[in-house]
């Protein structure tokens, strides 16, 4: 990875690269557990990286994802939130904040920074993750990514639309989706 000079690093993963074989501790289904990403082969995987628990923008994002989580699972996807916090901090946040109490997807703990570094979200200047989203297809190939400044939250509805478009393209060989495509819209036959 290349340091961009502002404490942030250039993105490590590229489109169509495979998901690294990684494991992480997590807070999931009211338990501290170990998640092996290879256990999710054959599913769409959505990762939402965020800087830290007990902050300002992050709980709004995780709550919005919680409200749409069923929509993601109906598309055959599993969602993972990722921060540098321990699974015990995730549990404390889950138990104390009514917005985070709605979260049913695995909250991955990246205390070593291994996940952030593998995905290219690690911010050298503060040791946290950049706010970022990644979508991997059922073969484990990266199909969409977004990394942006921490000052504003991601649009989870747009992330869902991207997943729906990616799934449509995969299931309808030879067709592509125009800008703003939503399920039911016309696709393009190149």
UniProtKB/TrEMBL annotation:
One BP annotation, GO: hydrogen peroxide catabolic process
Protein's name in the database: Peroxiredoxin
Entry keyword Oxidoreductase: yes
Active-site residues from the entry: 58 (cysteine sulfenic acid (-soh) intermediate)
GO cellular component, one term: cytosol
Record-linked InterPro entries: AhpC/TSA, Peroxiredoxin, Peroxiredoxin_AhpC-typ, Peroxiredoxin_C, Thioredoxin-like_sf, Thioredoxin_domain
One Pfam family this sequence matches: AhpC-TSA
UniProt cross-references to PANTHER family, sorted A to Z: ALKYL HYDROPEROXIDE REDUCTASE C (PTHR10681:SF121), THIOREDOXIN PEROXIDASE (PTHR10681)
Thioredoxin domain residues: 13-168
UniProt keywords, alphabetically: Antioxidant, Oxidoreductase, Peroxidase, Redox-active center
Record bears the keyword Oxidoreductase: yes
Domain of life: Archaea
GO molecular function, one term: thioredoxin peroxidase activity
């Amino acid at each position: 990875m290349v340091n961009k000079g502002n404490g942030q690093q250039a993105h490590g993963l590229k489109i169509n690269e495979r998901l690294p074989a990684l494991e992480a501790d997590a807070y999931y289904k009211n338990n501290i557990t170990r998640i092996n990403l290879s256990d999710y082969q054959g599913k769409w995987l959505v990762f939402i990286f965020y800087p830290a628990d007990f902050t300002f923008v992050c709980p709004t994002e995780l709550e919005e994802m919680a409200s749409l989580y069923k929509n993601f699972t109906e598309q055959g996807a599993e969602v993972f939130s990722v921060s540098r916090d321990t699974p015990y901090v995730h549990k404390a946040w889950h138990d104390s904040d009514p917005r985070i109490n709605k979260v049913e997807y695995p909250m991955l703990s990246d205390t070593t920074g291994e996940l952030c570094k593998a995905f290219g979200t690690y911010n050298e200047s503060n040791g946290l993750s950049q706010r970022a989203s990644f979508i991997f297809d059922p073969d484990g190939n990266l199909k969409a990514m977004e990394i942006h400044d921490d000052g504003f939250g991601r649009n989870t509805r747009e992330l869902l639309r991207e997943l729906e478009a990616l799934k449509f393209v995969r299931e309808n060989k030879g067709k592509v989706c125009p800008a703003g495509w939503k399920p039911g819209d016309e696709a393009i036959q190149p």
